[in-house]
Amino acid sequence: MVVTSLLIVLTFFGQTDDMSSGRVPYEILMKDGERIFAFVRQSDLNGKRYDIPIELDAPWLRPSERERELVLKDIDEYEPEMAALRNTRLKKGWESHGGVQIATSQGMQWVLRSEKVLADRADEMAVGSIVEGVPMDSAGQLLLENNHQEVMSPGFLRSWGVHIAVGGVSILGAGLLAWWGFFRKDWASL
Q1: Domain range summary for the chain, segments of one domain joined by +
Q2: Sign of the alpha-carbon torsion through 57, 58, 61, 65
Q3: pLDDT, tens digit, for every residue of 105-151?
Q4: Which CATH number describes the domain made up of 2-129?
Q5: How many CA atoms lie within 13 A of 137 on its CB side?
Q6: Which of 121, 136, 152, 165 has the fewest CB atoms below 10 angstroms from its CB?
């Protein structure tokens, strides 16, 4: 359960369905021959800005590693990337960067193998801390049916006795202070 939760979170931050959200990836060919696949606003490419912000279309990178700026005059040409070519490129990219596919409630998702290993370890640690001392059957399932114990209520006085005593002493002290301060005229007796 913990593994699934962690992997869903990791895949949410690592991979989004950008094509359906209106973001279109571009294949950008630089004048030095470098090919960059990134999300760019069309207005930035057609504008008169000197540098344009881009987000690399490489979901295996951390978000901070995806943000870059390109100098507009260094771009030779650009065109939107087709969905089928993008899917093929992303699959090869995930495989080359150590990605594995896992089954989630949203379908198959890619995550980094190193993050899956960490999630598996966290799951083992969580299960180990929960089931210490609890009997298990041969399949590793918890035997909770035979483990029901009646929990006794501590009782009213045990729960509220200290509160009642503190309240009573406070009321008694406030009454004595009021009697000596307001009703007695002679403070010399103290």
Answers
A1: 2-129
A2: negative
A3: 888 989 999 999 998 898 888 776 665 566 666 655 656 555 555 66
A4: 2.30.30.100
A5: 8
A6: 152
- Please indicate, yes or no, whether the overall pTM of this predicted structure exceeds 0.70: no
**Contact criterion met (CB below 8 Å) for 54 and 36:** yes
| Residue labelled with tokens 């403070």 | 187
